[in-house]
Predict the structure.
Amino acid sequence: MKKLAICLLALSGFAAAHGAHVHGVAEMDVVIEGKKLVITLESPADNLLGFEHTPKNDSEKAKLKAVSEQLQNASNLFTIAASAQCKAAAPTVKMPDFAKGGHSDIDAEYHFECATPPKQIALPLWKNFAGFKAITVNLATANGQKQIKLKSGQVLNLK
Ligand SMILES: [Zn+2]
């Protein structure tokens, strides 16, 4: 557990160094350690909501509510092969408060406990949130760290 925390810290430092906020692009940290799988998504709010300001009307208010509910269910974003038998814990979703104005991000963290390490993660988020065009994945496994750039529709191979 301690080791995982250090690993995550190292990754978030890495993300910050490269963390330009470009609409359509998101960062995803994927850490696999033993039976634990942790996926952290850091995305411009625009990718998910289509706006980055305090909701101005009922349709934007409804969109904000719908997206924050969708993010509570990991399966709207990730599909992990059933063979890995991963169980999802309750996610941590940080919606923007828009108080500062300018750009805002949505951060979400998903924890899974898997019987065997997954070899692949499919990403229904491409379909569910059309605002995503590319995702930079920082992958950390027992085999080391690497960065993978995914384009819309691609799956994440963990091998
Ligand atoms: Zn923005």
Notes: Residues 5-19 have pLDDT under 50 and may be disordered. Residues 21, 23, 44, 46, 52, 103 surround zinc ion (CB under 6 Å).
